[in-house]
């Protein structure tokens, strides 16, 4: 998580790539020490338990268990772990990043990639031998092939829209309608409806729905009961929350938490 040459968790990359796996205490310590930073290598950072939130530019990302975020070389970012977090990170030499995504994105991690990360984490980074090169090629191919996940939330730049967005993030349970939000921020409903997708890629209602669901992931990772999460995130009933969650993530909140190693807490 920390930049090359920063806290010492990642020494300078001597070969094409370098990986680290953290337990709960290490992950929280490294995230606090790193703060907002950037490094010359590309970074793939994932969770095996719990949840990460990552900030890159105007976008807020949620990285649940079984997923990873790709951060291109030179991209400024900050990382915050949630719940009982275990995670890993891999730095990839800038020369190998050609052909990899040019923008940050969330990827669903394959079993093959996870096993490759574990193998690289056990290598001695002070030396590099040619027999490692085939695995490097496999890792690069896996990153290119992994499917994207809808776990990013772009913040609008217009000050009026940004005011609304930050208010919704502070209190996703606020049930004011689109016209009420427009009046509160000092713009017309038509302007709100037109500008929100222009600046975020999502209509206002879709943006609010995603904001609620990403906040729900944080609450679930922290171990809150599903009913409490539903109410905290603005859903009138638990069943409505479960339905919305399933439409996006393809599973119930309880099953998601179980896959993250937090079964039995909700």
UniProtKB/TrEMBL annotation:
Superkingdom of source: Bacteria
Entries under Gene3D superfamilies matching the protein: Homeodomain-like
InterPro entries xref list: AraC-bd, Homeodomain-like_sf, HTH_AraC, HTH_AraC-typ_CS, RmlC_Cupin_sf, Tscrpt_reg_AraC-type_HTH
HTH araC/xylS-type domain: residues covered: 162-259
Record key words, sorted: Activator, DNA-binding, Transcription, Transcription regulation
SMART domains: HTH_ARAC
Matching Pfam families: AraC_binding (PF02311), HTH_18 (PF12833)
UniProt keyword ATP-binding present: no
PROSITE patterns in alphabetical order: HTH_ARAC_FAMILY_1, HTH_ARAC_FAMILY_2
PANTHER family, per the entry: HTH-TYPE TRANSCRIPTIONAL REGULATOR NIMR, TRANSCRIPTIONAL REGULATOR-RELATED
Protein known as: AraC family transcriptional regulator
Lineage: Bacteria, Pseudomonadati, Pseudomonadota, Gammaproteobacteria, Oceanospirillales
